[in-house]
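Trying the structure run again after the queue cleared.
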Amino acid sequence: MEYISTRGMSPTTSSAGAIRTGMAPDGGLYIPTSIPTWRGPEPLSAAAYQGRAAWLLAEFLTDYTPGEITGSAAAAYSSEKFPEAVAPVRTLTPSIHVLELWHGPTSAFKDMALQLLPHLLRYAVAKGEKQQRTLILVATSGDTGKAALEGFRDVPGTEIVVFYPARGVSPMQQWQMVTQEGNNVHVVAVEGNFDDAQRGVKALFASRDFNAALARRGLQSSSANSINWGRLVPQLVYYFSAYTDLVARSIVRQGEPVDIVVPTGNFGNILAAFYALLMGLPVHKLVCAANANNVLVDFLRTGIYDRRRPFVKTLSPSMDILVSSNVERLLFELSGRDSRAVASWMESLAAEGAYDASSLTEQLTDIFWTDWAGDDETLQTIGRVYQEHGYLLDPHTAVAWSVYEKYAAARGSSCPAILVSTASPFKFNRSVALALLGEEGVQGKDEFELVDLLARHTGWPVPVPLRDLKGKSVRHKTVCSPGDMGKTVLSLLDQQAK
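Done. Tokens:
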């Protein structure tokens, strides 16, 4: 299977080529030339998660050998990495089935892809003509950074630089990143928001001067963000896995549609569900849940994308995004793979901060239902769900739950819902404790005191990766402006080489 750019100006490449480079030379995102067909859960029902992943990867990564794929999946989803379960589905109500994606080494759903990507990239580099070392550049709104750092830590032949918005992630997310160990890892705070960091990373990929400077240092750039197809394709697996589990438990009849509810900011997680739908997963509606940075709500309702609005810092910081990169792939598919139209829309977004794709509105509203939840609703949902079900939601999952309730009230859907839970509640312990204990209960307590308080109050165990952070030393203190990101990367690399 070959891969093409959403903007149509780059040569076709193999799956290994798409993963190796991350972003197409024309600034577009790689897409497979065809979408495989899923014929039902039977081949997956008896397989462990590793086998389910290997099946799907083989459908898309046709230039990888069976041994490379099965070995990569086995290593990524081992019991050492996921000691309890990989992607369990918990039934909380007759209609809500929570897909927990935070049982990996960083307690967030990004582990589902970023434990696998380093293995795929290692093989991709070996299949290339030039055996250069790889520089992974990452912009993170919180969880991707730590998951990428952990996944690529001390991987031979790689360096990784993660940019995060200063004062734009939760204290626990920041602590996870700045204490990261490894001889090839670098963490930089950007004076700005996530969009500033993401825009800066994309500019580096497109910069001839920057990439020439990397080449002189024996490096080629790649991405661990979901602009890289190798980051996105592992995320399809858990939707098929969850559906297979619900069929096995007789909650869903084979072929019966489900609603899939996803809290999203950069649109990668819900885009993976969209591709699962294209492959044949029975989906009634994709429910896109946003926070107060609700640019996606307006876009999915009207086809008009307009980032020219105030940026809001919320209790669900991983969704504090105004430019959602993966929407570009959705536009490509819904426009009949019209690369000229996509390139025009992206040019308009870069130049004017908006574009009009209202010609796609009917398709968008047919596939997606969307709404948003503010911070007050988020806190109320966390408290109410714990009171009624004894279940803890992190703020992002609480946004999804709140929006699903709005959807159910508005549409009256009778379909079972797979509601995606993206992070351990202990990664956002202040917000969760605030919802359960009130302002007086959290006042004056630091992050680790809140972790212990939340565990004592609920009886929920603290995930080992978070529990073990206490006492670790800060190793990364670099701060830069968005305009100095390239200079900062080169400086860090040169210091590393000394």
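The CA atoms of residues 164 and 340 lie 32 Å apart. Worth checking whether this holds up in the mutant runs.
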